[in-house]
Amino acid sequence: MLRILCVLAIIVHVFGDVPTANESAELLENLTRIRENVRPQASDMMLLNYSKEMENVAEECVSRCKDEYPFYEDYPQYNETGFILVTSNHSPEFTEAFINVGRQASLYKYIKNICIGDCFSYKQAVWATSTKVGCAKKFCNDKNLGIVICAFNNA
User: Which domain does 114 fall in, by range?
Assistant: First the structure.
């Protein structure tokens, strides 16, 4: 019995946390609101759905405990996958992923396709061809690093 508990503790420590059904619905609601408020309106904006497949990608990424985007040059398995990455020095909440995204909307200048400051997460959130999103979070004690990652397809 002790061995089973130890194995379970290791598994929980290594992998990240994924959203509950209510949290994933809230994440999707926040993202949908951001995507609906794109100006000018996008005529080709696809409907976004929460995806266990993308959640698994996000969980794999947070398990590395790295404060960096998993770009496909270093991780070829993520070709055509986009990410929102939020870090902190505390145990993160999923909602933190979209607080900054909402703030970044005013930094993006559509006509010139440029950002006045950092709006990478906003651009990913409103990427018109994305149809699936999934998120995971983890607090890495040894690095005092909280991470929330949301993964998007067709990026």
Answer: 2-152
Task: Quote the DSSP letter at residue 73.
Answer: T
CA distances from 108 to 17, 30, 133, 150 (A): 31, 18, 21, 20
| pTM (predicted TM-score) | 0.87
Q: For position 42, which CATH number holds? A: 3.40.33.10
Beta bridge partners of 136: 149
SS3 101: helix
Count of domains in the chain?
1
Q: Give tens-digit pLDDT for 63-122.
A: 999 999 998 899 999 999 999 999 999 999 998 888 888 889 999 998 999 999 999 999
Q: Cα 109 vs. chain centroid, distance in angstroms?
A: 22
d(CA 110, CA 138): 33
